[in-house]
Amino acid sequence: MTGSHHPAAGKPDGPRITVEVPVLRVGAGASDYDGLNRFVEALRKPQGLHMTLLHVGILDELGRDIAAWTKGLSAPEKTLPEIASWLTELPVLQGFLGKSDKLIPLGGGRLMGLEVEVPQEVHDYQALLVQGLHVLFDDLGLDNIDDFILSSPALGYKSPRWLPHIAVGKARSRHEPEVEIAPVAIELGDSQIRNRKALPLP
Fold first, then answer.
1. Domain count across the chain
2. How far apart are CA 161 and CA 115, in angstroms?
């Protein structure tokens, strides 16, 4: 797919929409999280940590991706309210416990994050999200949906495999290796939609 984005059009703006779970606690206390500081350039504040289950991206950009893919048959004014309605009707995943013993490079090496072991029901829920996205896109008139999901800049998928992780800070260099750490328990809250108030009315 080419031609749907032009540098002259400027950088898309607007809040990013994701389905995510907030991180409530890393380890036994603040010192367990603060200890990760020695592995990163700048450690993120613990209050904003989260695990993304589904990245939807900037809705206007996704609307343009869909319109380009369907050659204008599925216009944003039709698709975006449908996407918003689907998101707001998703079941909530209840909070859960995970654990991590590894820091891994993310985002092409720009970030470091905790790779997290999560219960099977979390993997099942994430698979449900992707299956639901398939059904939604089929209803919106898209074909070759797997190809669209992997190629849409708005969705931002790099791989069909979901790796549970929590970005914790900026990498010290682009070539940081994986780092084994002392195992830490991670408490995560109920799933939520980031920037839910920015969704268009169905």
1. 1
2. 14
pLDDT in tens, 125-162: 999 999 999 999 999 999 999 999 999 999 988 777 88
- Which of helix, strand or coil describes residue 2? coil
Does 41 fall in a domain?
yes
Q: What whole-number distance in Å separates Cα of residue 162 and Cα of residue 127?
A: 9
Using CB atoms within 10 A of its CB, is residue 43 exposed (0-12), middle (13-18) or buried (19+)? middle
73-101 pLDDT tens trace: 999 999 999 999 999 999 999 999 999 99
Q: Is residue 68 assigned to a domain? A: yes
Token pair 């999280």: residue = 33
64: in domain: yes
Domain ranges, residue 138 = 16-98+119-166+185-194
Backbone phi, psi, residue 106, to 5°: -130, 165
Whether the CB-CB separation of 85 and 93 falls below 8 Å is answered with no
Is residue 79 one of the residues assigned to a domain?
A: yes
For residue 32, what are its two tokens? Answer: 């367990």
